Amino acid sequence: MSVKDLVRMANQIAVNQAHLSDDDAVALVAQHLTMFWAPALRRDLQVAAESGDTGLNAVALRAVRQLQPA
Amino acid sequence: MTVTVYIPRDSSARAVGADEVAVALTAEAARRGDEIRIVRNGSRGMLWLEPFVEVEVDGTRVGYGPVQAGDVAALLDAGLLTGADHGLKHGAVDDLPWLARQDRLTYARMGVIDPLDLADYETHGGLAGLRNAVAMTPQEVVDAVSASGLRGRGGAGFPAGRKWQTVLSAPGDTKYICCNADEGDSGTYADRMLMEGDPFTLLEGMTIAGLAVGATHGYIYIRSEYPDARDILNAAIGAARTFGWLGTDVLGSGRAFDINVRMGAGAYICGEETSMLDSLEGKRGMVRAKPPLPALEGLFGKPTVVNNVLTLGSVPFVLAEGADAHASRGLDRSLGTQVFQLAGNIKQGGVVELGFGVTLRELVEDFGGGTASGRPIRAIQVGGPLGSYLTPDQLDLPMEYETFAAAGAMVGHGGIVVHDDTVDMAKLARFAMEFCSEESCGKCTPCRVGSTRGVEVIDRITAGDDRAGNLTLLLDLCDVMTDGSLCAMGGLTPMPVLSALTKFPEDFGLTAQEVTS
Amino acid sequence: MRSWSFDVKRLTLGEMTERSLSEIAGGASLEAADPTSARVRAVAEARSAEPGPLLEILHDVQNEFGHLPESTTPVVAEVLNLSRAEVHGVISFYSDFHTAPPAEVTVAICRGEACQAVGAEALADYAKSRLGVDVGAHAKDGSVGLEQIFCFGNCALGPTASVAGRLHGRVTAERLDALIDDAQAGGSSS
Amino acid sequence: MTLLHEPARRVLSDMGTPAVPGESTVEVEIDGLAVTVPEGTSIMRAAAEAGIDVPKLCATDTLKSFGSCRVCLVEIEGRPGAPASCTTPVAPGMKVATSSPKVDRLRRGIIELYLSDHPADSCADGACELHAMAETVGLTDVRYGQQGHNHLNIEVDASNPYFSFDPKACIVCSRCVRACDEVQGTFALTVEGRGFESLISASGTSFMESECVSCGACVQACPTTALQEKSVIELGMPTRTVKTTCAYCGVGCSFDAEMRGDELVRMTPSKEGGANEGHSCVKGRFAWGYATHRERITVPMVRESITDEWREVSWDEAIAFTAQRFTTLQEQYGPDSIGGITSSRCTNEEVFVVQKMVRAAFGNNNVDTCARVCHSPTGYGLKQTFGTSAGTQDFKSVEDADVILLIGANPTDAHPVFASRMKKRLRQGAQLVVVDPRRIDLVRTPHIEAAHHLPLLPGTNVAMVNALAHVVVSEGLVDREFVASRCEDESFAAWESFIARPENSPEAMESATGVAASEIRAAARLYATAPNAAIYYGLGVTEHSQGSTMVMGMANLAMATGNIGRNGVGVNPLRGQNNVQGSCDMGSFPHEFSGYRHVSDDTVRVLFEDAWGREMRAEPGLRIPNMFDAAVAGTFRGLFVQGEDVAQSDPNITHVTAALTALDTLVVQDLFLNETAKFAHVFLPGTSFLEKDGTFTNAERRINRVRPVMAPKTGKDEWQVACDIATAMGYPMGYDEASQIMDEIAQVTPTFSGVSFAHLDEAGSLQWPCNDAAPEGTPIMHVDEFVRGKGHFVPTPYVPTDEKANRKFPLLLTTGRILSQYNVGAQTRRTANVEWHSEDLLEMHEADAAERGISEGDWVALNSRVGETHMRAHITDRVPQGVVYTTFHHPESGANVVTTENSDWATNCPEYKVTAVQMRPANAVDPHRVRADA
After folding, report:
1. Radius of gyration over alpha carbons of chain D, in Å?
2. Does A47 touch chain D (CB under 8 A)?
3. Every domain of chain A and the residues it spans
4. Facing residues of D301 across strands?
5. N or C: which end of chain B has fewer CB within 10 A?
């Protein structure tokens, strides 16, 4: 799975929560990723998030960091 | 001093040279230095005298006719403008027995006034009915029409008041008044003459109807064969709008009513009220099944009064002079007057307005003077192409709905077409079927297919091809058409056919016994 | 739906106009090249706000062109938001509407009973032989056409004929000859 | 059930005139029988209710009475003449005789007239009602003969590929014209001329050149053989009937498959069909010939490599081959290395077994469905707001709508039978608002004119719905009572304050949507103030980067205006495929089991684990695009594709084919060797709907039975194949018949617990939820409360798509369907429907064409950042400047070569509806010709 695509999709989810406070948005993105993304995808994203500048926006990055280890 | 000369603008008068007379008179008078004012009036209805020229002399109108353009110089030479004698002079018009014997209510102003001069119209009693109606409640107006006994003049004779009451009582904000001016029956032309000669009377009747039932819009559906009537009506409507009669505030009543003229396009069937409504809606003029009644679901599906020209044209009199004045004329349940039209092979063709009950003989012989050919009358068709043929021995029948119906005939629209003894009644019977096949809307089978088969079966009878078998078939066909057709077109076509067959079997190569057995 | 079916690489403008007019609302560019369609549209639009105006529009178009040009059906249908079939059905119902140009002079004989009572059938037969055409037909050169009418409302003064749009009563064979001659000479008869 | 105590009534198949709604009734006496009917009922129908069949020709109960044939004349005591029973309503106390010497004679006379202009030999197999009627009335001799004036020499119009019009047999009853007007709403037919010369005519031209859309309503209505299916002419009249369901769009029309022996002669729409009530479209009624097309594959085939030739094998070998390869992959790359895609074209039962195969035999949740690429946002959005992933209404509900808000759907092309119902309501006076970049037919089509067309720029739906909602909130048009009693206070308050922000006003959104604020305001007021306002939408809503947001935006709008929970309102997805709803219901999504229950829900999982005897994963599996990405990345190696042509229908074909090429094992189950099969190692022949036994669930949640009219041409029921693969992979799975699968679905799915084939056969159809709470199903949802309890509002910020027009790609491409073709065209391209639409065309505005030197019919190269394709130009003002449009029915043009990987943020539904493109004239590279030459 291309990390670039995962980042793009995660960012897109985050951007669509613009009406929420950052904390709420982070929670919602994390919940969405848990509910709808296969563990492998989350795992790839988590790995990428820890490895440095992935291009994840602030909300998405926080959300990814909040995810349970998949 | 300017002399007023009346030359009809009626299209029948024009068809025999009225325009040319007017042109010639204008030119000749100018050449002579005579000061004249030509008024193009409606026709007095003495059509055999058209072009009928009237000269106003000392307040009296003196009539000359029939005048041709070529006669103008001689007439002027003889002193036309002073009412002088001439071979074409008939004397004071009002005193002519043919007119004096009539009882003109609907046609009161016919030929008298300038059709488009609203002041002239008012001077001669116009707008009195509408002014009364404006002061009445809708129900009072409807009640007056009901009390007058006015019945639909278009042929069916349905009580106008009852129809109006249905529309008045129908729920809904949008209602219409539709004037059926698709006068397509041969032998009838009284609607046309009224529209051309006194259009304001029709507009007044429609306006009264509008106020009575709560309609704010009226349409006049006029056949395309009457272009003159259309133009005159449009001009009259324009004048009425300017006057403050038609429009948003009818004569200051605060109520709105306006009228538009719509033209047909060559379809006899559109004189049938439901197909007229379809045609007014811009559709094929197909007959609608009833119910629903047009009074409840008419034009564009809204409650609609559909009356013909003479019916609506009779309304101003009722409202001006009172229901009783109308109801005092006529016979039995046929109250008021009818404008009878004498046509065909007749010496003195024209319109005669008299109370119902006048006999056919009075009309054909006294007013009409017998046939134009001078030969004996053989058949008279009353009530248009769908009416029965009557024989000379029926001349004493009073012109009245129920009497005629009992005699297997119909008064219809009051058209009377006379045929002399050279007529071939089998041809006319065949023509009745042919006419139906030409003009059927095509919706129902008895009319659509039956009329064509009718022509063929009559042809086989007259050709002597299995006369007995084809006679039976023709009688069966007439039965199917009479009882099976959707509307009067197919339903009544057997009337002329069967009356011709039973009264003139010899024309079909049949004997009376064969036909009746 | 049919207009999607392109079987040829390139449609001529004429074909385009025919196929697409009803589909393309306000197809101004096509009509720019087809003045007749544009004019029909203008005539139709002038009355399109009236209730049920189809007959009135068809009269107006026919008054202007003498007949209903081919584009009448698609253009009027489009303006009034009717189907082409409906407009076609209406045009074909009424005997007044013609989709081909009229003859230069049209002679119409009344065949109503009142006129028949005074010889209309003989007059019609005479007209047929004089003009060499059947009722409802045009002379080959388009100079004259013969039609039958059922009643002009001139029933007391028959036989009745209309020649080049003018009504005449008490028409005899000789008078008809004169009227036709006069009309064909371009004059107004008297 | 009081009916049981009334005298037994024989209900006739055709009651003559439509039923009259109404409370008050009238009692009349017909032929001595007392009958009570609603006021306004025709005598004919009242007689039919009493079991008396009044002779008729022009009357039929699907059309308003007309009164033209005059065969149905009756006598009424005390009334003169013989009124037509079809047009005469009953009156209290009326005494009617439907037979008497007089009316019998009249009927014979009328039939005699008909037969004098009707071919004597047109009565094959009782196809002609006129001849049957002649027999009924006892007419033997036509005394007129047939030598008179007649129509017996008029030529047949055989221009339509499916039916012909023979004017000789026509009786001018206008049933066809009326059916076209009243039922279909196209007004393509008329009577030409009048009187005896009257002829049925398609606007004076041939049927094919006319406005006819070939729906078949006229053929259905014709009482004689004048309008007749060519198949009937060729094969003869059918002799038996099988009731089944159409397999095209999400309307789910009920049909009678009419058979002669084992041969299908014709498909006629069923009047009892809840979805279609006797109507059909050109596809369902006529385009079924693909089922026996010569290109159909009926034998399994395998190959080691996609460069090898196919090898026909036995079913056993094919299944063993498949199971062995999948098992090997799992051993080699892990259990998650394989997955499956279910099809929205297959039955619920077939779908259910495939997802069960994945979850139980594959042991993972890597199952997705083609709904992913069409209506997945509907599932997500309606679940969030209302609590269930389905439309709220039945189709009939549209008859009560006063305002219809149609967004991103083109029903006259894509859902034609529902479009006809909608048009009927619009002709009755309901108002229409169309939100669509393109001027679809419904914006203005004979007798229909939208009150507002909001031609927004592609990709700005959310901006539009926010602007509409902003008007509702800011102009005091919220239904406070509804919101207070039915919705969550807190989420409403949050939404209200969000939507009231100035940035959501029509004025602020004007530049985004390209639609004048005044128009948006007017449309919003119209919607919000209507007694009943309904939203209908299609893929123009879902196939966007904010597809799910838009679905929630519409749900918010409907809740805020109180337009939920009764007839005439609601939020209604028009589903693309016949069983999109069903395939989603059946648990085809990687995150949920049947009935939309999340895999993480322990209670649910235990239920399935108990039922299936296998442990279930609590984590979602891969979605289709994930599968493709993972295939390219090498972690996903094997795929089972049930009846979907992903290589044509999915976006960014280059990427898709790269993924398919990378797979070790691709198993395709389909009717034809489609584009996807080019990359497959196993081809398992599927069955057409004519061979299936099962159910489809349409867009209104209506479960309809699909019944086999012929044995499977493959020798195996399609559901059996997945069972066999699962079994071969070590998970025994088997059913004796399809009904057992539904029984299992009912057992594990609470919303289906009352559904069984037996119940369906008895009821005709059932709309889920169908369970103890609603034993006969649920036409309208959320009536007293939302499925989730209180309605949930979700703020919907507008986030412009990344796919923007720019200097390189200055145009926006959007895609859609056309009436005669269906989806990737696998079926319709194998029927005569190609006569209407033989290629995909690129619609463009005149100015865009002129700027590039493109003329009508020119070949155009269309390219986006991901690919280039060629198609021919069609210049039209249906699309605004800056927008181009095409269909995706033909693989030659391959519209999806240019669509991109962009997708809905919540569901990954592809953003088919927005692609930035450029175009240029192309030198006539005719792909058709190239292929023909090859």
Report:
1. 29
2. no
3. 3-66
4. D312, D683
5. N
